[in-house]
Amino acid sequence: MAPAAMTFASSLSDAQPVPFWLEDPGKPAALPALTGDEKTDLLVVGGGYSGLWTALLAKERDPRRDVVLIEGREVGWAASGRNGGFCAASLTHGLANGLARWPGDMARLEELGARNLDAIEDAVARHGIDCDFERTGEIDVATEPHQLEELREMHEEAGRLGFGGLELMDRDAVRAEVDSPTFLGGLWDRKGVAMLNPARLAWGLKRACLGLGVRIYENTRALDLSPAGAGMAVRTSYGRVYARRVALGTNVFPSLVKRIRPYTVPVYDYALMTEPLSPGQRDAIGWRNRQGLGDSANQFHYFRITADDRILWGGYDAIYPYGGKVTAELDHRPETYLKLAGQFFECFPQLEGLRFTHAWGGAIDTCSRFSAFFGTAHGGKVAYAAGYTGLGVGATRFGADVMLDLLAGERTERTELEMVRKKPLPFPPEPVAWAGIGITKWSLARADARGGRRNLWLRTMDRLGLGFDS
Ligand SMILES: Cc1cc2nc3c(=O)[nH]c(=O)nc-3n(C[C@H](O)[C@H](O)[C@H](O)COP(=O)(O)OP(=O)(O)OC[C@H]3O[C@@H](n4cnc5c(N)ncnc54)[C@H](O)[C@@H]3O)c2cc1C
C-alpha cells in the first residue's frame, strides 16, 4: 500500500461497520410480530418512510380508517435509517432531470415539491419528532472548471423559468461558507433542502403512527399477495392480513407485484462518519450555516455536518451487483471506504488526523429516469411507489399521497402529472443490464475526467431518456 493510502487506512481503523444513525440510544424497541390473522381497511407493507408516511397520511385523511403496517425487519433499518439525511423538495431528482423529462409539468412539480417539504417540516413540528430538522439548504459545489459553467447555466435556466431562490456563488463566497481548497464555486438552494437525522425521522413517524392508532407489526415479512373476496390477503410467516386496500412501500426489495420488479435495480452507495470535530477543526472549515453539500461530478460526493459536529461523507462509488441482488454482505465495501477516506482528506486537508467512527452502505432503488414511479395492481386494490433513486427522504411523502389518491380512485393534482401516469423504461434482463450499466459507469467516470464531455454511449442514452445514477 502506498504511504498516503496507509494514512487513510489508519483513519478508518476504528470505524464501526454500522450506520451511525442506527446506533442511537434512543432507538425504540421493535414491536411484536403478527401472529394470527388481522383484518383492516388499509394494509401498508414496509416500515421505511414510504410506508410510514402512507399510514400516517391515511389516518390524517380519515381518522376512522383502520390501518395496519407490517415491516419485515425493524422500522427504519433499511435506506430510511442509513441515508445522508438530505431532505429535498425536488420530486424529480433535481431540476435538470425534471426539465429534461417533464418540461410541461415542471412548474407544478416544483410547487408540489415545495409544499411537500413544508408539510414535512410541519409534521415534524406537529408530532414533536426530534430529528434535528434544519432548513439550511444545499450548496452544489464545482470542483472542476467545466462544472462552474454547468452551475451558471442551471442558475440562468432556473431564473428564466421563474424557479428562484438559487444563489450563484464564486470561489470566495463558497469558501467563506465551507472552506475547501477544491471548491471553485457553487449554487446554493437556500430553501429547497433540509438536513435531518434520518433514523430519528423514521422512528418519530412510527411513534406518530402509533399515536393515531395504526397497528404496527415488526419482523413480519409479507410473503405473498392474493385476491380475497372484495379485498386482498397478504400472507406472513405466522398469519394473514385481510385488507380492503394494500399500499406497497417496499422500495428496493422484491415487489409483491412481480411485474414491476424490472423497473428498479439496487445500486449500493457508501458513507463514512467522522468523530466530532474539535472547536479548532470547526474553525478551520467554517460551515457555520450547516448546509448540505454535494459536488457536481457524475460520480459525486454528498457531505454534511451533524448536530454533534461530525461530518458525513458519502457517495462516489455506485455499485451494481450482478443480477440485482440485495444482500447484507453488500452493505460493506472496504475498498470504497478507503477511496472515500482519501477523497475526504483531499477535500479537507485541514482536518488531517481526524478519524472515522462509522462506515456503512445501503441499497438505492434506482430506476432509469431517477425519480419515483407509481401504479396500481389487482383492479386498483393495491398501489405501489418505488424508484426514488437516492432522493427519497422528502419525495416518499409525496409518493405516499399518490398511493392514497390511487387507492381512493381519485383524480388529483398529483395523479394528473405525467410523472405519475407514465412509467420509466424497465431495465433489461441479465447479462444485458450488467453490461449496459457497466458501460454507462465507465463512460460517466470518463466524462468526469474529460471536462464533462459525454461520449456517444451517454449521448445515445440521453436521447433515449435512459440513465444510471445513485
Ligand atoms: C446510503 C444511502 C444514502 C442515501 N442518501 C439520501 C439522501 O441524503 N437524501 C435522499 O433524499 N435520499 C437518500 N437516499 C435514499 C432514501 O434513503 C430512500 O429513497 C428512502 O429511504 C426510501 O424509503 P422507502 O420507505 O421507500 O424504503 P426503505 O427505507 O428501504 O423501506 C422499505 C422497507 O420495506 C420493508 N420490506 C420490503 N419488503 C417487505 C416485505 N415483503 N414485507 C415486509 N416488509 C418489507 C423493508 O424491510 C424496509 O424496511 C439514500 C439511500 C442510501 C442507501
From TrEMBL:
Record's protein name: Glycine/D-amino acid oxidase
Pfam families membership: DAO
A single cellular component GO annotation: cytoplasm
Gene3D superfamilies documented for this protein: D-Amino Acid Oxidase, subunit A, domain 2, FAD/NAD(P)-binding domain
Species of origin: Streptomyces wuyuanensis
Domain FAD dependent oxidoreductase stretches: 41-403
InterPro entries on file: FAD-dep_OxRdtase, FAD/NAD-bd_sf
